[in-house]
Design a protein that fits this description.
This protein has helices at residues 32-35, 92-95, 99-104, 132-139, 162-168, and strands at residues 4-6, 25-30, 39-43, 51-53, 74-81, 89-90, 107-111, 129-130, 145-148, 173-176, 189-195, 203-211. The chain is of the alpha/beta class.
Length: 212
């Protein structure tokens, strides 16, 4: 029997957004009782909730999500489970023991456990991130995508976003704000994470689902 785990946070008005981003608003514009149908208007940043980053998010002239084939967003995946504390850096030495599963996977997910703080002020405060050296080490495997259960692959106070730059230079798309990574096996599952087909998209909310 196939098991399916949804790795996405639901989109709704008032949901957490990266500090400084516009809020998510889901506004009911039509009601069955009045109009005969129900319809809502959605207003949100392109990087709201569980979402995907394209190289165009940081690199002038970089690829946009709609320029990737849909098969870029589906593939065999692995989870790197790390026990981390607030402010920790994920160093390459912490990842090397995972190399066999990394080499066998097309998509790499980093499980820090930080999604437990989703909806609290702590979520955006000094969450664990990769060091630039660790990001470069992962990028050398050229995965289709790298995902994390934190708000970003770079630190909240990053200025030049070194990890984004490292991955985007190799056209690796990024998935941020994942959840339930602890419910997944270390490897041997398929990840499907499809962004909306938005023209010239620097990013998009996405529905991430694991199946095995």
């Amino acid at each position: 029997m196939t098991r399916i785990v949804d790795l996405s946070h639901p989109l709704h008005s008032g949901m957490p957004v990266f500090p400084g981003s516009l809020p998510v608003m889901v506004t009911r514009k039509a009601h069955i009782e009045t109009h005969g149908f129900s319809e809502a208007q959605l207003s949100m940043p392109s990087h709201a909730g569980t979402h995907m980053d394209a190289p165009a998010h940081m690199i002038p002239g970089g690829l946009t999500l709609d320029q990737f084939s849909p098969d870029r967003f589906i593939g065999s995946a692995c989870v790197l489970t790390l026990s981390l504390l607030q402010g920790d850096r994920i160093e390459s030495g912490m990842l090397m023991s995972h190399q066999p599963v990394i080499e066998s996977a097309e998509m790499i997910l980093i499980h820090t456990g930080w999604s437990q703080f989703w909806g609290t002020g702590k979520y955006f405060d000094n969450y664990p991130v990769l060091s630039a050296k660790a990001a470069s080490w992962l990028a050398d495997f050229s995965p289709k995508a790298i995902g994390t259960d934190t708000a970003s692959v770079d630190a909240f106070d990053a200025i030049d976003y070194p990890n984004h730059q490292i991955f985007f230079q190799k056209n690796i798309v990024l998935i941020e704000n994942l959840c339930r990574l602890g419910d997944l096996p270390n490897s041997g599952f398929t990840l499907t994470c499809l962004p909306l087909l938005i023209q010239d998209a620097d990013g998009s909310p996405a529905r991430a689902v694991a199946m095995w």
